[in-house]
């Protein structure tokens, strides 16, 4: 029962993120979509002149849920990968509610380390890309 509850929570959270992205209109400038959620403009970009590590992430999600993968990647490559993982988690969690597969069997200790390293590298590459296209 605990595994199914965890899978349900994972799936519900992921679907909620994707639904919110669907309800927003992507900002054509590839950054600024988050302002529709009531957040302020990026202070890092405003004060330092270059984008923060998450600039374009909300826009990437909004393009991703609309199937505009090239636009999503152009907005923020790392966030596009995260959006794909979010969609995978939504489906994976929903399927596992029915078949009750423990999540811990998938994320072994060695895989977790690899995933952390990959996540850091992808995030750094996404940020470097955003800085490169901004300058």
Keywords:
135 residues, mainly alpha
Question: How does this model look, in words?
Answer:
- Helix content is 69%, strand content 0%.
- It has 135 residues and is mostly helical.
- Helix 3 (57-65) packs antiparallel against helix 4 (69-75), helix 3 (57-65) packs across helix 5 and helix 5 runs antiparallel to helix 6 (109-134).
- The relative contact order is 0.17.
Tally of DSSP helical segments: 6
Molecular shape: globular
Most strands sheet: none
- pLDDT averaged residue by residue: 87
Distance between the termini: 52 Å
**Stretches with pLDDT under 50, minimum 5 residues:** none
Which structural class best describes the helix and strand composition? mainly alpha
Rg result: 16 Å
Number of strands: 0
Q: Can you give the helix content as a percent range?
A: 55-70%
In short:
By secondary structure, the protein is an all-alpha fold. The chain contains six helices and no strands.
Summarize the SSE layout with pairings.
Layout: H1 2-23, H2 43-48, H3 57-65, H4 69-75, H5 77-99, H6 109-134
Helix pairs in contact: 1-3, 1-5, 3-4, 3-5, 4-5, 5-6
